[in-house]
Amino acid sequence: MLIGTHILLPIIPLAWRRHKLLQEKKCGYKLHEFAVVGLFGALPDLLNPHLSLEARLSSWSHGMPFVGILAGLLLLGCIPKASPLTIIRASYLLFAYCLHLFCDGISGGIAWLYPFSDMVIGSAFIKPGLLWFASDFLLVITAYVLLRLLPDLAPQWRSPK
User: What is the pLDDT of residues 81-107, one digit of tens each?
Assistant: First the structure.
């Protein structure tokens, strides 16, 4: 999958949730949180870049052992009382990371237990490369529509009337 899909896919449900919270006059997510969630969606590729499927299958950042380490680090970040990281936020960041792995799993597979095992799961569900561009385009259009049609998502980006 392309990096745009990995960044935007976890952001879109977060944007929709923020819209619903703002409609109910509850506090929504801050806009900088969208950037952090998008970063965590792309984090496996940023931690261990790869240009081929073979390189991805031997990537330590695309395995469940690292997901366990990341979950532990996120939970440790929730411990200090002054920390802005809550269990809900940490869970969403972990969800964004795991969503990246799921997307890679359906587009060529992932060695889920690497470095302990080379067994590939998901290689039977290969999403053709041409659909990668289509999914990026669809997600960019969806994000644009959310920002234009839901004015409470990004009010400071709009010009005054």
Answer: 777 788 888 999 999 999 988 888 877
Name the residue with tokens 């004015």: 151
Higher-confidence residue of 129 and 11: namely 11
Q: For residue 125, name the pLDDT band (cuts at 50, 70, 90).
A: low
Intra-chain end-to-end CA distance of the chain, in Å: 40
DSSP symbol at 86:
-
Place of tokens 């990371």: 97
Domain ranges of the chain: 3-157
Tokens representing residue 47 in the block: 């931690």
149 vs 68: CA distance, rounded Å:
38
Assign 107 to helix, strand or coil: coil
In whole angstroms, give the CA distance from residue 125 to residue 4: 20
